[in-house]
C-alpha cells in the first residue's frame, strides 16, 4: 500500500508567499511607476523581485523530494512516475504557451501569423522543463550524484559563458545581446519567438535553463534532508542555516567574477538565491512545523495549494477583461485599465502609491477567490 507523502505546512506557506509575490510584481497599476524593490535589476544585481522565480523553482525541488521520495527506491515504479512527470510538464508548458499565444485583441487576431511570432520560452515553460529533468535526475541518481550534478551544471555553465567565443562576436562576454545564451536563442528559436521586450535575447532562454535546473536540484537536496526522520529538528535547522549562509557568501564571492544576474541565471545567482531560499524555508519550518506558530499562515497556504492555477488565471484574466472597452475621459480603454485609472490613479497623488495599491488590490482579489476554493476543498492539480 502506497503511503501518503509527508507534507510540510511551512512549504505550503513558502509557496503561497512566493506566488502572491509573483502576482504582486507582475501586475502593477502602471509599469512606468514601480517602487525599486518591486522591479527586476536592470542587468547585474539582485532585487527582492529577482528572488521570486528562483524561490519557486527551489520550492518545486523540495516538493519533488516529498512527492516522489517513496518511489525513488522502487525502480519498478520509475517508468510510471516519469510518465506522470512528463504529462505534468507538458501541461505546464502548454499553459505557458497559451498565455503567450492568447491575443490581447481578438479584432485583429490572425492565428497563423500569431504562431509565427509567439514567444516559446516563458516562466511556466521553464518550470515545466526544469521540473521534468529534475524529477528524472532525482529518481535515477543518489544524493551524492545529485550534488555532483549541481556542481557540473554550475561550473559547466560558468565555463561556457566566460570562455567559449560567441559566433559573430569573437569573444566570450556577458552582455545582453552578445552573450552565448542570446546567440543560441536567436539561432534556434529566431528573434520572432523570443521575449518581445528585447527580441534579441530571452530571460528564460535555452542555455540558462542549465543553471535553473541547479536551482531546482538545490531544493531537492534540501527537501531530502528535511524529510530525513533520523535527524532531529534542531539539527536540521542548524545545518540548513549554515548551508544557506555559506551559499549566500559563495554567491557573493563568485559575483566578483561571474556577476549575480537573473536574466542570465548565472551560477552565482543560483548560489545566492538558493541560500536565501534555504534560510527562509528553514526559518518557516522552525516557526510553523516545529513550534506550531501557524495562525498567520492561512492566507499564504490558500495561495500555495492552488499556486499554478492562480498564476495562470491571473495572467489570463487581465487580457480578457481589457477586451471590454469603457469610455474614460474621451477614450475607449479596457475594463481593468478603467478600474486602475478611475479607482486608483485618481485616488492617490503619488503615482507610485497608486500603482502599488492597484497591485495589492489585485492580490487581494485573487485571495478572495482562492479562499472560496480552499473552503470548498477545490484544489486544481497541474
Automatic annotation (TrEMBL):
Keywords: Membrane, Transmembrane, Transmembrane helix. Residues 43-93 form the DUF5009 domain. The keyword Transmembrane applies. InterPro entries: DUF5009. It comes from the Bacteria. Pfam families: DUF5009. The chain crosses the membrane at residues 12-31, 51-68, 89-106, 118-139, 146-166, 205-226, 238-257, 269-288, 300-321, 356-374. The keyword Transmembrane applies. This is DUF5009 domain-containing protein. It comes from Pedobacter chitinilyticus.
